[in-house]
């Protein structure tokens, strides 16, 4: 289980990562990775209240956060929840390798319900590696 501070809950939080992040798909998963500093952007869809901190709490950086999208196209409720639990466990192990303030959304594609845990892990690793790769600058030579 991910800690509460590491989970995305509001649709605006998902939208920021999907619209502003880098997308990479491998196998049965698509990841949207937003490597921004974690500062809240200005706009009505992203206006979320700041978490309440105790008066003496240290102001450390925002932890990396993750959210999951598993639609009905993946399968019935039992299959969707199985896929979501597997992805949550896989992401929990990998979230510590991401920089603070990173937002990650993992979207399961319809074939995800038929994959083994190891194959889902391989697809997630490949998608994360592709999303973290630096973009090529400039256009291709014509």
Q: Any key phrases for this structure?
A:
142 residues, alpha+beta, four-stranded mixed β-sheet, 16% strand
Structural account:
The chain has 142 residues and is an alpha+beta fold. It contains 3 helices and 4 strands. 32% of the residues lie in helices and 16% in strands. Strands 1-2-4-3 form a 4-stranded mixed sheet, with helices on both faces. Helix 2 crosses helix 3. The termini are far apart.
Helical content band: 25-40%
Describe the sheet with the most strands.
Answer: 4 strands, mixed
Helix-strand pattern: HEEEHEH
Q: Structural class of the secondary structure composition?
A: alpha+beta
N-to-C span: 49 Å
> What is the percentage of strand-forming residues?
15-25%
The low-confidence parts are: 37-59
- Give the overall shape: globular
Report the mean per-residue pLDDT as an integer: 80
The total of beta strands comes to 4
Spatial sequence of strands, sheet with the most strands: 1-2-4-3
What's this model, at a glance?
With 142 residues, this protein is α+β, with helices and mostly antiparallel strands.
Write the layout of secondary structure elements.
Blueprint: H1 11-20, E1 22-26, E2 29-34, E3 65-70, H2 77-95, E4 103-108, H3 117-132
Helix pairs in contact: 2-3
